[in-house]
Amino acid sequence: MKVVAFDVASSIAHFRRPDTTATQLTYPFIPPTVAKGIVGAILGIEDFVTKDRVGIQLLSKVQIISQQLSLLGKGSGTVFNRPTTIQLLVQPAYRIYYGGEEYVDMLEEKLMNHHAVYTTYLGSAFALTKPRYVGTWRLQEIVPPDSVCYAKTVVPVDLIEELKVEAGYYYQRANGFMREYLGNRAFQKSIDFLYEQNGKKIKILPKQENDLDMSVCVLEGDLLCLV
């Protein structure tokens, strides 16, 4: 499988959880569907639907603050400003691994030429970002090994047989990420992840199930988990 990696970063980001209303909470890192949306923006595809997969590597500490903003709202045909409490990620940075057969070649060309058709941002228009090409690899999809190993990306909980806890690590679980985008603002399935708050690689014993709906590869001795 061909895998292309690129970095995105910004001073702030907001990936709103769909189950929040008055207070707009954020996911702790970029969801896979948003990462694919960035790829769609780079390629100029407005309603981007693909079977390609993505993996998310944290390049910065997960830091969340709450801020009250005056946002533009709508009501009864009139426009008004409404105070809204919103969670923001501070100084977020991610490495996106994009693999598959549909759009990888097109993405590689765009990234290498520093070209994007549409503006790219991290969840909200006030969090602009510029994707930076990192590299391209030909990787073999593997059955998860039956030995302890480190994962370079955030790890789907369904892949973990056992977590090997290490001193000085701050483990977090993030639930309820949308998994598959069907087009026309419709999603199906959800996925939960385990990650280390400071972006460190997690040491795990993977499950040996063959029906895991994800791609597992090895890069530089570490696991890549693409969903």
3D architecture notes:
The longest helix is centred in the N-terminal third of the chain and has 12 residues, at 32-43. The strands form five sheets. A four-stranded antiparallel β-sheet has the order 4-7-1-8, covered by helices on one side. The chain has helices at residues 32-43, 104-112, and strands spanning 2-9, 12-13, 23-24, 53-58, 64-75, 78-90, 93-100, 132-138, 149-151, 155-156, 160-163, 171-183, 186-196, 202-206, 215-219, 222-226. It has one domain (2-226): Alpha-Beta Plaits (2-Layer Sandwich), CATH 3.30.70.2660. The chain is mainly beta. It is built from two helices and 16 strands. The two termini are 14 Å apart. The mean pLDDT is 93.
Tally of individual helices: 2
Q: What is the CATH C level class, in words?
A: Alpha Beta
Succession of helices and strands: EEEHEEEEHEEEEEEEEE
- Are there runs of 5+ residues with pLDDT below 50, and where? none
Radius of gyration: 18 Å
Q: What is the domain total for the residues? A: 1
Count of individual beta strands: 16
Keywords: Antiviral defense
InterPro entries: CRISPR-assoc_prot_Cas5_N (IPR013422)
Protein name: CRISPR-associated protein Cas5
